[in-house]
Amino acid sequence: MSKTKVMVVEDESIVAIDIGQRLESLGYEVTATVSSGEKAIEKAQETSPDIILMDIVLKGKMDGIEAASVITERFNIPIVYLTAYSDEKTLKRAKITGPFGYIIKPFEDRELHSVIEVALYKYEMDIKLKKSEELYRIIVNSMNDILFTLDMDEKCTMISEPQLKRYGLNKDNFIGKTPLEIFGEEGKIHHEHNLKVLQGESVVYEWSTQFTGEKLYFQTSISPLKNEKDEIIGIVGLFRDVSDLKEAKKALSWELNVNNSLAELSQKLLNPISLEKISKNVLNYAVSLTGSQFCFVGYVEPGTKNLKSFSVTPQVYEKCHVSDIFSTEFNFNEVGGLWGWVLDNKEPLMTNDPNNDPRSIGTPEGHVKINRFLSVPAIMDGELVGQIALANAEEPYQDHDLELVSRLANLYALAVHRKLSENQIKASEEKNRRIVEKFLKIVSEVLTEIK
Q: What gap in Å lies between CA 286 and CA 263, rounded to an integer?
């Protein structure tokens, strides 16, 4: 087993020699004996001792405390101070450098041995503690969750800061504050659950807030924080951002709802109903699924540019005061504006700022105010069959709304095309029936004359 290496910093040569001999008799290896702070720094780098015995009072520009400060910072070598002075002012300066022990001159060999061994043990424990703290820091920083602790008064005593930065926050927003002070009224849910935990329960709950201007969802797990006597001294917990999971569940729920609704609508459209009823059914589902305030659905008369027999939400009748707006048909070449653009170009249009859309021509006096607009043409075999137009949803229209209305438009196009085909077949059958009746009448008259 290798010997512990010790460096001695002492400006009185006789004392330095004596300490060196004592150290060797105790089984230590003396790597260097120097008399100044500057030389101590130089030799500490050259010889890398395990520990340094540093006299506080040294001759020259740098005393032992200044030298110890530099050595500790640069090389992290444990220091034990040698001093014949124990006044409060000197000790206060020495404490700042974080020494691992003191020994007052003159001292016995057993004192020297004890101080060195205790210092080395403390240093070893300090290294282990720092490694443990570093590992803890790495783990905490690597977590996606926000770790925190509260005291018995619910004041935050610790919170992992790296995760807070993604929300534009830092620990100063939390440390020393209660949930009510941090979150205001939203903090009541935390306060209620904290009280349960302080009584010994463990709790998991969900809540939402708006750290970054957008709504965020969190799951919080909290448990009692206990000391070695198993006494509750506070709360330890985790904030877990479940916004993505919440959005995924919401999207799945929305998709299931849409699919079920489209299946129901498809079934209704298979029934023998009028074009007006087809338009009304599609309108009802479009309004319900997008949360829109206004809507109209209409079909294009074959061979013309007339939008006919459209269904309109009751709110339009109540709030729109444009003259003749509810006539039974429009020639969309004369319409213009956003919904006219959709008909002319056979392309969908979605905007949450219609007033600044270059395709908009504004609204006439008395028209309902439009602050969001979404419209999709109903196309069948490249031909325009009709249109679905929505306005003023509760929330801004998104891509999934456009996709939904496009699916509704496809169903609408199929239903209208099927109905028009049925009407043509019926008209053709009626025409044929009349021809046959007329033919039979003529035959009957001819036969009568022959008789």
A: 14
